[in-house]
Amino acid sequence: MTPAGTAESIRPRISFYRDQGRYRGILSWVLTSDHKRIGILYFIFVIAFFFSGVILGFFMRLEMIAPGGAIMKPQTYNALFTLHGIIMIFLVVIPAIPTIFGNFFLPIQIGARDVAFPRINLLSWWLYISGAAIIALSVFTGEGPPDTGWTFYTPYSLRTTVNVPLAVFGLFILGMSSILTGVNFVTTTHRLRAPGMTWKRLPLFVWAIYSTSWVQILATPVIGITLALIMIERFFGVGVFDPAKGGDPILYQHMFWIYSHPATYIMILPAMGIVSDIVPVFARKKIFGYMAIAVSGVAIAAVGSLVWGHHMFVSGQSDFAALLFSLLTFLVAVPSAIKVFNWVATLHKGSIVLEPPLLFCLAFIFLFSIGGLTGLIQGALASNVHLHDTYWIPGHFHYIIFGGMGFGLFAAFHYWFPKMFGRMYNRKMAVWAWGIMLVGFNVFYFSMLLLGWGGMPRRYYDYLPQFRALHLTATFGSWILIAGLMLMFTNLFRGLLKGEKAGDNPWGGATLEWQIPSPPPTENFEEIPVIRHGPYDFEEIRENG
Amino acid sequence: MALMILRRFGKMDDAKELVAGEVGDATGARLGMWLFILSELLLFGGLFILYSAYRYKNPVDFHHASRELDVILGTLNTIILLTSSLSMVSSISALQRGDRKLSMVLLMTTIALGILFLINKGLEWGTKIEHGIYPNAPALLARAKGEILFYGLYYVMTGLHGLHVLVGVCVLLVMLLFVSKGKIRSTHFTPLENSGLYWHLVDVIWIFLYPLFYLIS
User: What is the ipTM of this complex?
Assistant: First the structure.
């Protein structure tokens, strides 16, 4: 069945941190084809970019603490919100969960030794780093950092004198990285499942990464060509988005959102997979509606690809198109709600253990629900006219992406930390950090929702006196949030250095990663396991028949 | 078509005994290639959307502009590329039957045809540029808006396609090297097969570009 016996029994089963492979030192990392090492590489860089994004956000909030130019010039503010968006979306939120946890755990969870194309996996990482470096270069060279907003809307992105083409080129490279990662994960899921690992026995995290990968493969090329067209326009002046030459800037918006709306599902689906994996472990209960969760993920990926026009209700599309896009937007809420109901039903009558990973998942469910419901309000045509381009939109977006994806990511940090590093963090401190962040988050972003409802336009560096109190509250909330973040990362970092040994299965999980040592050895399994039960059939459930 | 692809993947699930890192999961490699090709199709798909939108808006201008393209040169290039796809598959089946020499000759034919296509394309572009028809050229900007768009799309789409032909030629050159060194042989031919898939993709895209630009007048 497997060629495991010979080579494996000779090689000692040491953790993948100590087994350097062919190279030594830093080269054993940047030239590795081990999926776990590549996962750790992404981990380091995603966190670094996350912090640069947080710092930019902090200064944006600080500028808004009082009306008028509080600490910076308008052009600086333009650059700040553009860079905050580019860094957070393209360097953190889109890649974070698939590249860190998908790389590290997808092969283990399906019982494989690595991904299908390990060297292409390394290439993906190099492309990611190169793309990031090019974006960083665009900030410090030319006539200054991009100031277009992360959407690069034409015609402004074609006219502004700042360094747009270089930043766009960096994003193009990141897109290639994203596509290759998607190709890798889809092939891995199809080809490398262990014997007995049927589609109905896949952990839901694998299902989520699988659906996400399809969106990555199918949607990313469209943004690729759109961004390439910006470069072509700027260098050759072809005119496809220039009205003077017959082009239509609105078509750019279509092309942009054809990718970028599905991209929001690239952001949220993996986090949903994490919640689906964690909730049953801490409810000590089988997941409720396994197939419903798996299929709703695919449904979100499919229907989510057809709703891009809801970003353009006021851009001048036909009433019929707007109506259709609005209807589809409401439809996509259905599979999302199915997931929420399933998680809650899983908790119902479970033997709940309130450990940090579950707390983060509960925060996810709460914040994601607010994000989802506010999304319906702006998805309705009439209210959208009022809310479009106000603080409501970034408020909603942060509830979904930070409250959803971000807290899902933090849940994954706390859930898989002992497996990845073999050590445990201080759980009490983790709960404190969770509480502080949750309070700070709501103070911050709920104020943004209220500001938007009151008519505060987004991307303005100044505002009318009537918004003063809420802006002050939001800035105050951002400080609480950042304090919580610092506490969380300090706690994790301390756990990494000084934490007690965690053991192989501290949470009593039933998926495959908990059946191997922490941290896992190179190639994960001595012998490829044969799967005989589902991912949430915990020992006590199996014993009780 | 989506169903067909899905059915293919269903079949690809069969061999479960395969382990990561093991050389020669040919089916896996092919699946990966098909996924990559899918993403390539969508890359061009974005441009086809632009083409459809602008042709719908400016049917008459597109008609006029298309009349100025050299149909004979375009047809010649179509024949060249189709023939190169034939020599490509023949090269693979020659290798599968163990005839390395024939396989190499056919591969070289494919490469030569690819280069011929690019030369033709270059000549065609050259003539157009000589007549002052290129992006942002004063002579072009003086024309109707639909014609500016037609030629804009013409340069972008055939340019991107030409880039793919160029990449394909480079890939095939590497394959030629591998076949001559025996790294790719009758028992291990997946890389050549995958390069062939890529070459056919380039061919298929041209089959759409050819009528859309040359035959609509």
Answer: 0.91
